[in-house]
Amino acid sequence: xxxxGVSYSFxxxxxxHDGMRDGVPRLLETFDRFGVKAxxxxxxxxxxxxxxxxxxxxxxxxxxxxxxxxxxxxxxxxTILSGTLLPARLIAAKHPDIVRRISDEGHExxxxxxDHRLWQDHLDRLTRDRxxxxxxxxxxxxxRILGRRPRAVAAPAWRATATSLQVQDGLGLExxxxxxxxxxxxxxxxxxxxxxxxxxxxxxxxxxxLTLGRKDLDACAEEVLAVPAGARRPEGRGAxxxxxxxxxxxxxxxxxxxxxxxxxxxxxRSARIQTLHEKASEILSSAVSPPVIRVRAQPMAGRxxxxxxxxxxxxxx
Length: 317
Ligand SMILES: [Zn+2]
Description:
- This protein is α/β, with parallel strands linked by helices.
- The protein has helices spanning 17-34, 49-58, 62-69, 71-75, 77-80, 96-104, 116-122, 128-146, 162-169, 206-211, 217-225, 256-268, 276-285; strands spanning 7-14, 39-43, 108-113, 152-153, 175-176, 186-189, 192-193, 241-247, 272-273, 292-299, 306-311.
- Helices cover 40% and strands 16% of the residues.
- The mean pLDDT is 89.
- The chain binds zinc ion.
- Zinc ion binds at residues 13, 15, 112, 116, 156-157.
């Protein structure tokens, strides 16, 4: 694969307390060794990861599912029981020193969530006010720690609705990253056209590939680094952008070697790596206005539940 002319971005989501405390410092050391700057989206509020397990527990085949997904190995039992049998710990709100360290080391820091689980499991049922409140709490905490407003948000589990996009449009953001697949642009979902630039996640995440039965990490890395079919260089809008999703709990944990493989490969290809903010600035300063992208809530291979998926426009690759 020829990586020339492609711009890679690493989008790190932090979903759990232990991912923040243990995974992020480990990721920072690895990025530092390769001289790479990433974009971190942080969950600030309670770690209710255990609620997902509780839902699984109530479903049939609990143990089989737990073992198949490798959840105990990936997350540890403290996280798996967090918010149910054990009290929920705050995530980034409890670790202001690590939040500042990410920023001080030159990475981009933005907002992922207040209550990640609430958004992921119940977004469809959240009122506009409740969604606003989720952002308000995360933004307040972010500003207290970093002394500035966030520039961007990224929806937990890539879940978005017309209402969530509408609320985000009121936040004065530079961009949002809620969508899977496709090109950047202004998303149209359930009849609502957002005015906030959307930079989608274009690549699969490692957990999805593992769920689909892939075993070899080198082959997974090839898949994650491949420029997606249909990625194009829109006139005046720079290089096709490949956005690679990482999770502090995964690549900052037992799958740390996977990030090493990715970074060695991008270094060997002399690939261009940008933060999402750098990419957004380029897009927004271009003379060509970003296109409208059509988005729909759809299931996706390797994931439970629907994600906000870009739908190819008629007549386009
Ligand atoms: Zn997340």
